[in-house]
Amino acid sequence: MHRLQFHYTLSRQSSPALVRNPLIDLLQAVSIHGSISAGARALGLSYRHVWGELKRWEQELGNDLLIWEKGQSARLTEFGSKLMWAEGQAQARLAPQIEALRSELERAFAVAFDSQAHVVTLYASHDHALGALREFALNSEAWSAAHSRLHLDIRFSGSVDAIRALNEGRCVLAGFHTLQNPQQGSVAEKIYKPLLKTGLHKIIGFATRTQGLMVAAGNPLHLRTLQDVQNCGARFVNRPLGAGTRVVLDELLAQSDLSAAQFPGYVHTEPSHTAVAHAIAAGTADVGLGIEVAARAHGLDFVPLVEESYHLVCLKSALDDPAIVALMLLLKSPAWQARLSSLPGYAAWQSGEVQSLRRVLPWWDFPRKG
């Protein structure tokens, strides 16, 4: 079985939507004109090129394509004829889908050729507000009519992986979260401080959100604290190593003097707040740490535990990039902040404002000069 690969061409010229292999054009030209030389002339190619390509394709496909007999016109072999037939069948059947695919590609590439459109590649810890921001930027008529079009290319990952992606140049912005006013010596400092550098990185304010226990409707186990979870042996579902919520959980366990090794379900992980909520709603777990909007979306109860700040971080050198400027304007807009505040457990926090690392994360203690 031979596999197919698809390619497309960028051009200023309008042309029919085709998914077509160059071999078919060669076979058709030779078949119509009766010889390689005549077919080559019709295609505007050299005899040597066409002959070489036909031989290459015969070797690639393991079958003869043409029958050459002295004094006779070149004609297709049975295999060559079946290739032509298969091409015709596919084109006839798939023409509408091919045209739709071309239209989707053209809409996507229109952004690249639109000087008023900007794309921000963002690696971020899983967050519902970022998804809402992406939709708002694209679909808010009041915003898009007055400002540059902004496309958020969001790749959800753990907080640690998001900052690493920023430092490795795989994105221009990273999203991570910490407890409000994280203290020196905290778990968050040990995790994030080695990844961030004052003078190199800048924080852009985004939101505050509430993290808490997601539990079944009615909270049948009467869980109010992490100590309750451990005491009653409730089935806990955690987040993977590197996730921001995993860092928050470790912080809260340390503050409560609870051992992760003795905490039920600590090694059972799900990749997102949504996946944790689904596990609880499906009855495979009793409780997990997450955000209120995910709990409400799955019909769960929510027990608030802590307030945290969700940060956007970029390199200082990127602050003047048109895409980052457009994003900051969007975050500052009253329309977006009203949309953000409508999400359960969220509130605007210095949205769109540039903050220094030392102000937001007071982990760097430099001696005063003089």
Question: Beta-strand level of the residues, as a percent range?
Answer: 15-25%
Count of discrete alpha- or pi-helical segments spanning 4 or more residues: 15
- Name of the CATH class of the largest domain: Alpha Beta
pLDDT < 50 stretches: none
User: End-to-end distance, in Å?
Assistant: 77 Å
Helix content: 40-55%
| Cα Rg | 29 Å
What is the architecture of the largest domain at the second tier of CATH?
3-Layer(aba) Sandwich
Secondary structure class reads alpha/beta
Number of strands: 11
Whole-number total of structural domains: 2
- Using the alpha-carbon principal axes, give the shape: elongated
Order of helices and strands: HHHEEHEHHEHEHEHEHHEHEHHEEH
Q: What is the mean predicted local confidence, pLDDT?
A: 89
How is this structure best summarized?
By secondary structure, the chain is of the alpha/beta class.
Q: What's the SSE blueprint?
A:
Blueprint lengths: L21 H12 L2 H8 L3 H15 L4 E2 L7 E2 L1 H35 L4 E8 L3 H12 L1 H6 L2 E8 L2 H9 L5 E7 L7 H6 L8 E15 L10 H7 L3 E2 L6 H12 L17 H9 L5 E5 H6 L3 E15 L6 H11 L1 H8 L4 E3 L5 E2 L1 H4 L10
Parallel strand pairs: 3-4, 3-5, 7-8
Antiparallel strand pairs: 1-2, 5-9, 6-8, 6-9, 6-10, 6-11
Helix pairs in contact: 1-2, 2-3
What does this structure look like?
There is one protein chain. With 370 residues, this protein is of the alpha/beta class. Helix content is 43%, strand content 19%. The chain is built from 15 helices and eleven strands. The chain has helices at 22-33, 36-43, 47-61, 78-112, 128-139, 141-146, 159-167, 187-192, 226-232, 244-255, 273-281, 292-297, 322-332, 334-341, 357-360, and strands at residues 66-67, 75-76, 117-124, 149-156, 173-179, 201-215, 236-237, 287-291, 301-315, 346-348, 354-355. The strands form two sheets. Strands 3, 4, 5, 6, 7, 8, 9, 10 and 11 form a nine-stranded mixed β-sheet that branches. Helix 1 crosses helix 2 (36-43) and helix 2 crosses helix 3. It starts with 21 loop residues before the first helix and ends in a 10-residue tail after the last helix. The model has no long low-confidence stretch (mean pLDDT 89).
